[in-house]
Design brief:
- This protein has 492 residues and is an alpha/beta fold.
- Helices cover 36% and strands 21% of the residues.
- The protein has 16 helices and 21 strands.
- Helix 9 (225-236) links the parallel strand 9 (217-221) and strand 10 (241-247).
- It is globular.
């Protein structure tokens, strides 16, 4: 745990006593802060009390005594309306921050030169975070990975010159971190998400952009208009910026989405890393319009990096690795040994000719698009749960790749309306029924290499506690069926 010394002797309010809140309170207490901890939930208050943390009803407290309110990222800061603790803090001039802000203040006070790689974006940030950490560890670097992935940031090793912190940050965490200043900041992409917490796509995009505001080096995905505009603003401020994109050809003219737009950014000083989806090779461009391309790594033989989206994730990792002094051989070897991320295009194995893929982390249509684009056809797709705005209508161009869809959860009716007349589907209702039907249909299908793909395009909370819970259940169901299939083969 990181001891937070920057609030020593000061009184700090801590609201939201789940995992990150309790860790933040313990870190503050270890550094000499005086605490006033509270949560709206009785169970959370009981857990904090059991940990020896002082409980104070913040609704009745004198807020003028607090130096800061440390707020859990799950608590509304602005939308749909500020939480009552936020309103009290603002009324008395108390700053509202989160646990990641505590980390960056401690780093500034104790190890200002330490290396921090911070990653955000609507999709791809977890895979990119895990991949960056894997590449650096494979090269012998000492890495502490956490934040919105794995363990909370304050449960990691303290900042120091010989540790590289690799942090995945959600928009909620960025919104609570005014001192956010990573060595390398990565913004993967921006598509509409969490608008219930940010109000508008413009607000959401502005929060994401803040991760790059004070980054020494900004690495930006070039696949959407919002990110390209952010890259342009950094370049206008003469801040070093590296762009990452996927292209299908080695010529600059084929660079998607807009040759002219990318050319203007190159002219403004953008450095460019291009992932070639056709060849599976990540190449480093010099930045000049007609500059030479240098091959960094071949991704064709890396199953965990299947698909154009993972080629882009690899480009982000390559950008970091090059910045931190790794050689091409080290980078290529590390990418080749990447095992993949649990619940994100995770290949569970095969049953007969059928490959079973767990993509439970795909909770919106944009993320599912990346999964469907990774296979040419023969997809037996399991989808459903609590739908996000827009449902699956944006996926229509991939419906011809579907052999059949198996709909579960409360979104099944709406998804059925979207699929009607465009793809075959059944109402499976639950995940056990869906996987069993999908495997049976795939085994008897005409396809040589069919895929059973759980990629829900939905939140999980109608039937599961989290996307992880849903993915673990899917894995368990696969393993039961796999064992049964293996037993039949032995007996035969």
């Amino acid at each position: 745990m990181i001891t937070i010394s920057t609030f020593a002797g000061k009184e700090v309010a801590v609201f939201g006593l789940a995992r990150s809140g309790i860790t933040a309170a313990e870190a503050l207490r270890a550094g000499g802060a005086k605490l006033a901890c509270w949560d709206d939930g009785e169970q959370q208050r009981a857990a904090a009390s059991a940990a020896g943390l002082p409980l104070v009803d913040l609704d009745a407290a004198d807020w003028r005594q607090f130096a800061a309110l440390v707020l859990a990222p799950g608590v509304p800061l602005t939308h749909p309306k500020p939480h009552w603790t936020v309103e009290k803090a603002r009324a008395t001039g108390v700053e509202v921050i989160g646990d990641v802000e505590l980390f960056f203040r401690e780093r500034a006070a104790t190890a200002p030169g330490s290396t921090v790689v911070a990653i955000t974006g609507t999709n791809g940030k977890s895979t990119t975070t895990a991949l960056v950490a894997h590449v650096l560890r494979s090269a012998g670097r000492r890495v502490a990975m956490g934040g919105n992935i794995g363990v909370g940031v304050l449960s990691l090793e303290p900042p120091s010159p010989d540790v590289v912190h690799v942090l995945e940050l959600s928009s909620f965490q960025v919104d609570l971190t005014p001192s956010l200043a990573p060595t390398i900041g990565i913004l993967t992409n921006i598509t509409p998400d969490h608008l219930d917490r940010h109000g508008t796509i413009e607000n959401y995009s502005a929060v994401k952009e803040r991760l790059l505001r004070d980054a020494e080096v900004g690495v930006v995905g070039m696949g959407d208009e919002a990110c390209r505009a952010i890259a342009g603003r950094r370049l206008a401020q003469q801040k070093r910026t590296i762009g990452c994109l996927v292209a299908d050809d080695a010529t600059r003219a084929a660079i998607a989405p807009s040759s002219a737009e990318i050319a203007a950014l190159l002219d403004a000083g953008l450095e460019l890393l291009v992932a070639r989806s056709s060849s599976g090779v990540v190449r480093h461009e010099s930045g000049a319009a007609d500059g030479p391309a240098v091959s960094v790594a071949d991704l064709a033989a890396v199953p965990a990096l299947r698909g154009p989206h993972n080629a882009e994730n690899a480009a982000f990792a390559v950008a970091v690795a090059l910045e931190l002094g790794l050689g091409n051989g080290q980078i290529a070897a590390a990418l080749g040994s990447f095992p993949g991320l649990q619940h994100r295009m995770e290949v569970l194995g095969r049953i007969g000719k059928v490959t079973v893929v767990n993509d439970s982390k795909a909770t919106n249509a944009d993320s599912v698009e990346k999964a469907l684009a990774s296979f040419d056809g023969g997809i037996f797709w399991i989808a459903g749960g609590i739908a996000k705005d827009g449902g699956i209508e944006s996926l229509a161009r991939y419906f011809p790749r579907l052999a059949k869809a198996y709909l579960i959860g409360e979104s099944a009716g709406d998804f059925a309306e979207t699929l009607a007349g465009k793809a075959e589907f059944v109402h499976a209702a639950t995940l056990p029924k869906a996987i069993e039907a999908a495997i049976e249909d795939a085994l008897t299908s005409k396809y040589e290499s069919p895929v059973v793909l759980l990629s829900p395009a939905c939140a999980s909370f109608d039937q599961y506690k989290s996307f992880e819970h849903r993915g673990e259940h899917f894995r368990a169901l696969f393993e039961v069926r796999h064992r049964a299939e293996s037993s039949r083969e032995v007996l035969s």
